[in-house]
Design goal:
With about 200 residues, this protein is α/β, with parallel strands linked by helices. It has 7 helices and 6 strands. It has helices at about 20-25, 30-45, 100-115, 135-145, 160-165, 180-185, 195-205; strands spanning about 1-5, 10-15, 120-125, 150, 170-175, 190-195.
C-alpha cells in the first residue's frame, strides 16, 4: 500500500510504502472490542468504597433480650438498621482484566488497518514548527481539514508543536510510545509522521 507524504503546508513530499501485515489486514471488530474493553477497565480507578458491617460505629452490644419481641438481633451495625453497615457494597479493587500480549499487538495492527481502509490515515513529513503559536496551527489544521485527529510522532514530540496543539479541541498529540487502540478509534483521522512509521516498522519487525 502506498500513501502520499504530506507536509504541514499541505504540499506533497513523496510517497511511502506501508506494510500489508500492519496496515492491510481485514479488520476484526471482535479483537478491537476486546482491546477497547481491556484499556477502559484498566483505566478505571476502582476506588469506590462503602462501610460494611465490620466498619460501622454503632454498638455491638445485644440491645434486646433473645426472646420477647427483639427479633433476636445481635447489634445495631446490621444493614437493616439506620447507621448500620452496607450489605454487599463496593470495596476498592482493580477492574483490570488479562489480555495476551500477542492479542494486544494484533489489535493495534487492526486499528491501523481500519484507519487505512477508511482512508483516514495520513502520513506527515514532520511536525517541527518554529514557534508555539496555537492560532497559526489552528489555521493550518483547518486548511488540512484536521478537525478531529490523533497525531503520532517519533520518540519525542517537537515541544513547540506540542504546546501549540494542546489547546486545540479534538486534537491529540502523542509520542510513538503512547499509541493505543482507544485513542486511534476515537479520533476521525490518524496522522503518523515518518519517524512514527519507522518506529512502528521496528516494533512489528
Amino acid at each position: 500500500m502506498e500513501l502520499q507524504i504530506t507536509t504541514l503546508d499541505g504540499k506533497s513530499n513523496g510517497t511511502v510504502t506501508l506494510a500489508d501485515d500492519v496496515f492491510g489486514l481485514e479488520v476484526r471488530q471482535d479483537i478491537l472490542h476486546r482491546m477497547v474493553r481491556y484499556q477502559q477497565l484498566k483505566a478505571m480507578a476502582g476506588t469506590h468504597d462503602v462501610k460494611n458491617r465490620s466498619e460501622g460505629v454503632r454498638t455491638g452490644k445485644k440491645f434486646k433480650k433473645q426472646k420477647g419481641g427483639g427479633a433476636r438481633h445481635g447489634d445495631r451495625k446490621a444493614p437493616q438498621f439506620r447507621g448500620g453497615g452496607r450489605a454487599f457494597g463496593p470495596t476498592p479493587r482493580s477492574h483490570a482484566i488479562d489480555l495476551p500480549k500477542k492479542v494486544r499487538a494484533l489489535a493495534l495492527k487492526h486499528a491501523l488497518s481500519a484507519k487505512a481502509a477508511a482512508g483516514e490515515l495520513i502520513v506527515l513529513d514532520s511536525v517541527i514548527t518554529k514557534a508555539p503559536k496555537t492560532a497559526a496551527l489552528r489555521i493550518t489544521f483547518g486548511k488540512l481539514d484536521w478537525m478531529n485527529a490523533l497525531i503520532i510522532d517519533g520518540a519525542t514530540v517537537d515541544q513547540n508543536f506540542a504546546l501549540a496543539a494542546r489547546n486545540i479541541p479534538h486534537i491529540d498529540v502523542l509520542p510513538i510510545q503512547g499509541i493505543n487502540v482507544v485513542d486511534i478509534l476515537r479520533r476521525q483521522k490518524l496522522v503518523l509522521t515518518k519517524a512514527a512509521l519507522e518506529a512502528l516498522e521496528a516494533r512489528f519487525a
